[in-house]
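Bit of a strange request maybe. I'm writing a small parser for structure token strings and I need a real example to test against, not something I typed by hand. Could someone generate the tokens for this chain?
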Amino acid sequence: MKPKTTKPSASGRRLLGQQHNFGRHAAYSHYTKSTTRRVAAPLPSPAAFYAAEIQGFNEGDNDWAWGCCPFHDDHNPSLCMNLRTGWYACKSSNCGATGKSIVSFVSERDGLSVADAIRFLEGRT
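Reply from user aminoacidic:
Good idea to test on real output. This should exercise your parser:
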């Protein structure tokens, strides 16, 4: 019979009979740490952003719009955008660009990090 170990399992959970050797405060310290965060400026609405940035922007029904995709040489509108959430996807068979927000759109289009894309968008409001 194998002796019981006192180390946690690989998933981080204790197995039956295992003991821990840290206090309650140490276990929950990562939840109570206070970090200083800067207050972010509001980002532009996806509808206003896409209307200004997308060539051939054409608003459709139910918060959806189409326009020419900036990720490839596009002459027929193939970029589908949700104007409420900012989600986008290119329906062209040779592109396939997708993202879930205007932050990911700017990040992918301009080659920026997410933090730099947020700073860029904050300056546009």
